[in-house]
Structure formats: structure tokens, C-alpha cells
Amino acid sequence: MSLLQPHDRQDGCDPVPFRPLIVVGASVRAAVQSASLAQFTPFGVDAFGDLDTQQFSAQWTRLDTHIDACSLLNSHPIAPIVATGGIESLIPWLEPLRKKFPVLIPSANTLQTLRDPEFLNTAATETGWHFPPWQWHRPTDGGKWFKKDCASAGGCEVVEWNTNHKIIGSNYFQKKAHGTAWGANFLATGKQLLLVGVSRSLRHAIGPRKYLYAGSIGPIVVSENQLQQLLKIGDWIRRNSDIRGLFGIDLLFRSANSPLTLLEINPRYTASMELWERASGCSLIEAHVASFQSTSTNPQLFRNIAQASPNPISGEYCGPYWIKRILWARNNVRWHRATVLETLGRWKIARCNTIAARASFSLCDYPADGTVIPVGSPIASWIFGPIHPSDPIPWKMASLHRQLSALEKVVNRRVAQA
Q1: Which residues contact 269 (CB under 8 A, 6 or more apart)?
Q2: Could you give the C-alpha distances from 135 to 148, 170, 211, 244, 338, in angstroms and in order?
Q3: Which residue stretches of 38-160 are H helix?
Q4: Backbone angles phi and psi of 285, in degrees to 5
Q5: Contacts of 410 (CB under 8 A, 6+ apart)
Q6: Over the chain, what is the mean pLDDT?
Q7: What is the pTM of this model?
């Protein structure tokens, strides 16, 4: 079954077993799509309610933390709960659900530990990685410092520090580090760790927020040395916390002879995982649920994931890759899907010799026509692919980023006029 199609429930076919799964997060489209691929019946709970999220969900509920979690999910079946981005800020709200639902999310203590810069610093130190200098108190020396928030996601609260900023209890400060942004995704079972894949991360700047997550390119090839560094820190995290299932890390690559730089741990299904799913045809949500049971319950699933992931010795990856680009609102815009698709079609024709333009594309995470989207908010996502590994897009990032940023500006201008 394609990741691009919702699970069909047609009359006259063999009945599909009812396997309910509740997916909670800021945006859950990719995860409910993954769940549908594995023939779960997904119930989406998120902040946006994009049309394709609702299409893939048996029932969609708006995420409202002003209502206690048990009341919000009162009409849902008793089913496992999995999480996507934004879970970091929902820890207190989620905890009461454990009394009623099987919550396949790390405990509140584990989530807080995994986001703690002291834990991150120890992880880097003990595995030969680099972790940029950091501190809890306001910087007083020179150099560029970032103000970060332990409970944020997607780069939303990463800002360059100045004395006008307000400070809250979960803030800390970290010196700016240089390098190419990567994301690495893992699957942890009881005694096993799989490196699912690595991608290059795209960043975007709107006002003071200069490091917003804007998408990914992947899966990409890593060297044997980089692979061993990734496996070492991934296994350290698994052994030194009770994390299970999917998790990702954000990191920086500086040079072939330098240690990788750890930035943060994301203990959940991450935004770049769907690129690996599209390349492999496997559902990582299914693997996440299975990892809380036993690898013996579905050994073939774990074998399939291992075979589609980078070679555990060489780091070699020979499959296709994909480009995911999040479209951000540069001003207040009114969404009109036909206008965006027309603009994208014209862009592909005008740049027919570029790799991204030659690839097939899909529009994801899009709202209903007429929706007003405020400046600094995500509008939708484009996904381009599959792209043959002989097309070296990951190594032409500057040109690609300029092309996609120019396309984003055009779309913003067109939907502002629509």
C-alpha cells in the first residue's frame, strides 16, 4: 500500500481488523499516514486539523490543552497512544492518560532527562561527541549565544540571545556551533538499537526565529566513521534511559575528521522519518508499537527495517531519497490550494533542468481553502521524490535551498493576493 493513499475500506473486501491507535502532537499527518499504511485505524489529535490529516484519520480531534486530556479523549477507544513533534511541551498534560490508556511515550521523568542539557553534555562526553558550551544563567562574556527551551521543538524557541529576552525556568543558554545540520533516527527495542536513517536538515528564518525546522533531504549516505559515532551515541542513550521505540537526534557535521556535534534528542516520531518510510515502504509507527511488545511478535518487520537502513558496517545506502520542504507564512496569508498547485506547476516547468523540478511531488499538511494563516506559522509541506541516488542533491544544498526559498516567496505572494 502506498504511503500516499489512505487505507481503503471498501465494501465486498475482507474486513480490516479494527486496530485503533491514537496519535497526539502539534501536527500528526505523517504519523497517521504511517499508521494507515500498517492498517491501524488512526485517531488524530493535533493543533491544525489539515485536510489530509483528517483524510487519514478515522476521527480527528483538535488538541486543546485547556481541556484535561482524559476528557478530551473520552470518546476515543481505549487504544495505544503515540506522539509526534510538540510532545515536549505536553508532558504534564499527557501524564493522566497513563491511568486509562497504554501510552507508548517515555515517562515524564525520561522526557525531561532526555531534554536536559546536563544529560546531553554527558552523552556527548562519554561517546566522543562534541556538545557546545552551555549554562543555565545569563551570558556575560562575548560571543554568540542562543537562548533555548528544554520544552520546545522544531527550532521555535532557538533565538540569538540579547538582554531584552524574557527568561523562563526551562531556558538555558548555549554558544553557537557551526556545521551542517543533520537528523538521525533510531529504533530502540529491549536490547537492540537500529539506526533507521540519516537526513540533512533545512532551516528557515522568520524574524528573530532564525533556526526554524524547514524540512529534510534523505535518507543520505554516511561514512563508516560517522555511522559508528551515531550507533555509539544512540546505544548510549538507549542504555542510560528507559527510552523505547522511535527517537531522533539533531546534530551538526563539521568535517570528516571532527567529532559530530550533539544538539538535542527528540524522543518520538520525528518530522524526517516519513522520508525513510517513503523510500523503504515500511511503517515506522508499526515498528514503534511493536517495540513496546517484543521483536519476536513481528521479526520480519524488524528485518525489513534493518535491510532498508544504512549498512551497519559501511554506512552505505543505495535507495532513493526525498526532499521535504515546509512552507512558512512570511506574512498573513489566506490559503487557496489551486493557486499553490498552479504556482508549483509553473515553477517546475521554468526549472525543468533542476533535480527537484524533475521529481514527482505531493502537497501535504494543507488546510481548508479560505483558512487565514498568521505570519510565522507553517502553511503546508511539499515532498519531492523519489530521486535517484546518482542525482547528488545533498551536496548542492545552497542552490537547492535558494530555489525552494524563492518558490516559497512566490507562493506567499500569490496566496496573499488570492
Answers
A1: 25, 30, 31, 34, 82, 83, 84, 246, 284, 285, 288
A2: 11, 12, 20, 29, 48
A3: 51-56, 69-72, 91-94, 108-115, 117-127
A4: -65, -40
A5: 343, 347
A6: 84
A7: 0.89
